[in-house]
Design goal:
With 390 residues, the protein is of the alpha/beta class. It has two domains: 201 residues, Rossmann fold (3-Layer(aba) Sandwich), CATH 3.40.50.300; 169 residues, Beta Polymerase, domain 2. It is 50% helix and 14% strand. The strands form two sheets. Strands 2-3-1-4-5 form a five-stranded parallel β-sheet, with helices on both faces. A hairpin with a 7-residue loop joins strand 9 and strand 10. Helix 3 packs antiparallel against helix 5 and helix 13 packs across helix 14. The longest helix is centred in the N-terminal third of the chain and has 25 residues.
Length: 390
């Protein structure tokens, strides 16, 4: 099962995206729908709201008068917190029941208005944000939903900012265009990323390797890495002592293969092996057990370089996850090498020249031959770099 978080500000059109995904076959769990279910007449949720906000939040037929509740619940932070403390646990319980009932190969889309505000993004395999600027959303709420402008602005200001949502987005879906313009975008996302991601995760298959070509340094690599690190922490819990963004994409301004590298530091390889299934469920299945990870000349027992290697199942965000033992030569070198490149402009330039040479050697080759040519240039330089940093 692939868990997708879907959110966006009020009036952004996330329900439209949810509908398109459902038409493709996604199982959609709409938190707004569940929020209405758990406060329907006769439920414990409605009784709790009346106790907290008074009987005048009820309509004449005994159902919840939602505008009346909103006027009170969104008046201040304390009232909003009270509302959330009542409804969120009930919605969470019902959500868990629906997730448990979904098929093992489901692409499960959780439509959650407050996904960012409640810190739920790390629990998902991927987060989709429907993006429309705040002023356009206010206009839509007023024109198409009949919401009073001051009420619309109050509700929007109580939610995450556009910047906070964009920081949480693995996929940013611009829905500011004409009606229907987003359909083709979601269709491509479904076929090119979500379907293969689900299959890879279910079959414990890392996404195919990317080509041995350098990409221009991308300032978004750091933010992308932080999102994945948050998921890795959820998967690892106390079994990890630290999780770091390493490798070339962790060095600002350095051209690199568009593959994020992470290092999870563990107490021993038994702890690494114990994380195998949790990492796979998070979207990072095992690639291989490595007995000696390119031990450097003059170092101790090559077995000290052993590690476990996982890879991202997401074809849209290639990543490698290296699990190494705390204090081992490979664990220390990964951090020292990254920090050296960050601090030393000459070292960065030297390393980039080596990478360019390796790229040229591998040009026109495929498979093992390409890898042998590429790493045949880089590994001797890494050996020398290790000696320089020792």
């Amino acid at each position: 099962m692939l868990r997708i978080g879907l959110t966006g500000g009020m009036g952004a059109g996330k329900s439209t995206v949810a509908r398109i995904l459902a038409e493709h076959g996604a199982v959609v769990i709409d938190s707004d729908v569940l929020a209405r279910e758990v406060v329907a007449p006769g439920t414990e949720g409605l009784a709790a709201l009346v106790a907290a906000f008074g009987a005048d939040i009820l309509a004449a037929d005994g159902s919840l008068d939602r505008p009346a509740l909103a006027a009170r619940a969104f008046a201040d932070d304390e009232s909003r917190a009270t509302l959330n403390s009542i409804t969120h646990p009930l919605v969470g319980k019902r959500t868990a029941e629906l997730i448990a009932a979904a098929a093992p190969d489901a692409i499960l889309v959780q439509d959650i208005p407050l996904l960012v505000e409640n810190g739920l993004a790390p629990l998902m395999n991927l987060v989709l944000i429907v993006d429309v600027d705040a002023e356009t959303r206010v206009r839509r709420l007023v024109e198409f939903r009949g919401v009073d402008e001051s009420d619309a602005r109050a509700r929007i200001s109580a939610q995450a900012t556009d910047e906070q949502r964009r920081a949480a987005a693995d996929v940013l879906l611009d829905n500011s265009g004409a009606p229907g313009a987003i359909d083709a975008v979601v269709d491509r996302l479904w076929h090119e990323r979500l379907v293969p991601f689900e299959a890879n995760k279910r079959t414990r298959t890392p996404a195919p390797k990317s080509a041995l070509r350098l990409a221009p340094a991308d300032p978004e690599w750091a933010a992308q890495a932080q999102r994945l690190i948050a998921r890795l922490w959820v998967a690892c819990g106390a079994a990890a002592t630290r999780i770091d963004h390493i490798g070339s994409t962790a060095v600002p301004g350095l051209d690199a293969k568009d593959v994020l590298d992470f290092q999870i530091t563990v107490a021993d390889l038994a702890a690494a092996d114990g994380l195998r299934e949790a990492l796979a469920e998070a979207g990072f299945p095992r690639k291989q057990d490595i007995v000696a990870d390119n031990p450097k000349p003059g170092t101790a027992d090559p077995a000290l370089w052993a590690k476990r290697l996982h890879g991202s199942a997401d074809p849209g965000r290639p990543a490698n996850v290296h699990l190494r033992v705390a204090g081992s030569p490979g664990q220390r070198f990964a951090l020292d090498f990254r920090d050296w490149l960050r601090a030393d402009a000459d070292a960065r330039a030297e390393y980039l020249a080596v990478k360019r040479e390796a790229e040229a050697k591998a040009a026109g080759l495929t498979g093992p031959a390409a890898a042998e040519a590429y790493y045949g240039v880089k590994e001797p330089w890494f050996d020398a770099a290790y000696a320089r940093l020792s």
